[in-house]
Amino acid sequence: MKKSITLWMSTLLALTVSMSSCSDDEEERVTSYDATYQVSFYCQDPGLNMKQGRWIGNEFIEYTPQSEPPYHLLVRWSDEKGKQAIDYILERNPDQIVNIAEISDNNEYRISSKVYFESPYFFVSSSYNSSEKGWGGGYSILILPQIILKMKEGKSIEAITREYAHTLTLQEEQTMKDVFIFDSNVRTSREALQLASDIHQRDDVEWAETNNYSAYSECFVEKDRNGSITAQGTFTRRQTEYFQISTEYFQISTE
What local confidence, expressed as pLDDT, does residue 12 receive? Predict the structure, then answer.
């Protein structure tokens, strides 16, 4: 499946939020804050030293977020306010933005930035490296604000929908018996990973994990002689097994 993406270089408005240079003791602290959309800027992902990843049975597969800029971020909005917040950041901080790719079909931006940022108005994922051998190990992984889970035989999904009513929304389409996809309202990839981990520990759940873009080639590379860039994305091994999803391709066109 191909999707059209518009890629912009940083021909944006002048910088109005002063971004300080990062010292060693500031790497995980807020270095700047913009109250307009409650945006916090960091020199590094504040979850860098947290234990993050996914479970395969009792084995924990560690995900390590990017520690050096430029940071390749996935930013997704769910409403017009979120889109406005992202556009505001991009317009006010052109010196910090390396590249931008908008995927309008998914309400997403792929942003290459010199700083990491967060806001309660949108979801942001760092780029992670997986410790798993193969199936994404050694490749970049972007987390989506979605949880995929399989209930144990004979267990009902109603307990999940009831207990997580304020966090999860069940998607209508059910691909396979006892396997369910939820949208979540978390705002960071570390929150999504923690949510999936918590659900995975339940007695009535066989497994739970985030939905990902994984094993993809970075979007932020030189365009080829035809003026286009191709990025490849796959899903996790377990998602491929259950959904028989192979590879999605994103064709990026430039203006």
Answer: 27
